[in-house]
Each structure stands twice: as C-alpha cells, then as structure tokens.
Design brief:
Length: about 150
C-alpha cells in the first residue's frame, strides 16, 4: 500500500489551522483519518495505525492502562454514537452526571460528548445501575467506544 504523506501533512496542517482535533477524508476505498493523538490509514478493512504526538517536543506518557474487557455486544454496554470529547459533568465545578453503583433511569443524561463545538447529551437507553464507567472526563472517544455499563 502506498501512503500519501503529502495528503497526511495537508490534513495535519488543516487541523492546526482550524483548531479541530480530528479530520477524516475518503476517496474510493482509501480512508485517511488524522487526529492529534494519532493517524489511522485504512484501505478496505485492514487498518494501519501510527501514533504521532501532536507536538513532538512534548514528552508523551506511555499508555499503561489495561484494555477494557467490555465489548459493544455486552447487553448493558452504552456505546458512543459519535467521535468527540467526553465530559462527565455539565461544568467543571458541578457534580458528575453519574457515579459507579448509582441508579439511573431511562432518558437521564449519562454524559456529554462535544463534537465540532456542539455539546451532545448522551441519554441512558434503559433504567438500571451504573456498574462501570469506562471513560474519563475530557477523554477523546471514537464512534462505537463503550462508555458505561448499565445492569
């Protein structure tokens, strides 16, 4: 597979110019996605991921977290409907919308995803108990990432 470095650099420049954190362009079966945390190039169904720091002069912390064992097929999993940044509370000084072990009713706000400067409330699809919160405040997320588990 040939990697179009010029296209990736142009997209990275566009990210810096616009203040966006991620951009994706597709042409035919070729898909290029650039985000400030990494670059993913996908052709058909075989992705190649390369981590690129947003500022090469800033040291990057190693990812030491164990991957979540909860998948999107788990019956209580609530997944992200979009790419964006997670916020667990309405404002920095306010309490979080949810806490582990707390009851939740269908339709209540679980968290907010900011996408393209728009705040999108994520509502509970069912009533139950919050058994796991798999994201942190301010964390970037992808479409389909498991956010919480409601049992």
């Amino acid at each position: 597979m040939k990697i179009d470095e010029k296209a990736i650099r142009q997209l990275a420049d566009l990210l810096n110019e616009t203040g966006l954190t991620e951009i994706e362009v597709a042409e035919g079966e070729t898909l290029i996605r650039v985000n400030k945390g990494g670059t993913i190039i996908q052709n058909g169904t075989s992705p190649i991921a390369t981590t690129m720091p947003s500022d090469p002069t800033v040291p990057q912390a190693a990812n030491t977290e164990a991957p979540s064992t909860v998948t999107a097929t788990h019956p209580g999993a609530v997944t992200s409907p979009m790419v964006g940044t997670i916020y667990l509370q309405a404002e920095p000084e306010t309490p979080p919308f949810i806490t582990k072990g707390a009851p939740i009713s269908e339709g209540e706000t679980l968290m907010i995803i900011e996408a393209m400067k728009v705040m999108n409330p994520i509502k509970a699809p069912k009533s139950g108990i919050i058994t796991q919160i798999l994201v942190e405040d301010g964390q970037p997320i992808e479409f389909g990432d498991v956010l919480v588990v409601i049992e």
